[in-house]
Amino acid sequence: MTTKRIVLHFPQRLVDKPIVYKLIKDFALQFNILKAYVTPQEEGLMVLELKGKDEDYQKGIEYLQSSGVKIQPLSEDIIRNEIKCTDCGVCVPICPTQALVVDPITRKVHFYDNKCIACELCVKICPTHAMELHF
Fold first, then answer.
1. Which of 18-22, 103-107, 108-112, 125-129 has the lowest mean pLDDT?
2. Which fold is adopted by the domain 77-135?
3. How far apart are CA 133 and CA 135, in angstroms?
4. Using CA atoms, how far apart are residues 12 and 41, in angstroms rounded to an integer?
């Protein structure tokens, strides 16, 4: 079973097509939409958590790519800038998925990108702008 968080970039010609619907119908994949910016006549962006059997997952990804959808892991878009971070911890209590946690011994903030859902709450609250979103 494969579960991954991915970012889909739809070209303008695909924005009004039922691309994600086919992931369920043709490939038996489950998905959770974490974020979406899809506007007719413009490029679309969707952050999904996609889950299914390994073979079905791979076939679904191949279908998306052959349709013209650009795919990348969510972890490439959410970045914690270690140089800017002062480990103040302001971001920790606001994170709904506990992707940001304070180490009880070192008091340093750790970022677990595999838990992140790109809600952007940490980006907005960080006083040093150490959390960066690159869509």
1. 18-22
2. Alpha-Beta Plaits (3.30.70)
3. 6
4. 6
